[in-house]
């Protein structure tokens, strides 16, 4: 089983991440310290949670470009509610962020499910709408740390077993989504709907409803991340997470989530997010310009897409072979 993982896409990516991690550690030994490792994971936690939701959307042959705008709008709402009602219980604020995020995600899902609008079109539109709504709501003003309650800011930073609550939230999300995607019928339907929509339809799977659920989950996680973002950085403004949707999609693609749907794993997308997290933390240490960081990230995405396309072609060739040839090929591997 270990050997199979090492030779898998996730295994190879894990090795690359570890090589980068310890390679930078040779230059700066503090980089591989336990405290910095926890810090890197904590820095990547919001990306991981957004990637888990995006993974479900991409598995169903869709894409959600509005996640970062969802984060900005939800973060602004809960920050302003906390500003005007500082005595409000944190559980209510977190629930509010989940509900708002779910509502914004449901809007995308309903357009895709009921009106058959291409996901890239509707989410590109709602991305602009949610950003504009954030500006209208705040009138372009910021909500800074002095206007936030102590409990609002402290929750993501509170440490349990030497790790911040934010990191534990990401771990909890990984475990829940992993179980749902691997062991529940509801989770397996995402693969069916994206892998072969026609076969899924004849098997009794409502593909449109599955896509709706994917956007609903993505929106809910984005709403939670909206609160976590503004509380962790102690500021809410219109351009929060601006462009972050590109990193979310990049992490999915790097982690082996097929852009044509139906293929990918929770482990893969988490490793993809950690890859970006390590790169973002490592490049400044070795003196790489922020502009080169963007170029390197783009290059990695292109390589990942080519690798995914090559993998899909190989699978297609195996399917098109004669049965005896396919068996011989499988035995040779």
Automatic annotation (TrEMBL):
It is a multi-pass membrane protein. Belongs to the binding-protein-dependent transport system permease family. AraH/RbsC subfamily. It comes from the Bacteria. The lineage of its organism: Bacteria, Pseudomonadati, Pseudomonadota, Gammaproteobacteria, Oceanospirillales. Its main location: membrane. InterPro entries: ABC_transp_permease. Keywords: Cell membrane, Membrane, Transmembrane, Transmembrane helix. It comes from Marinomonas primoryensis. It is found in: Cell inner membrane. This is ABC transporter permease. The chain crosses the membrane at residues 12-34, 40-60, 67-85, 91-115, 161-181, 210-230, 251-279, 291-311.
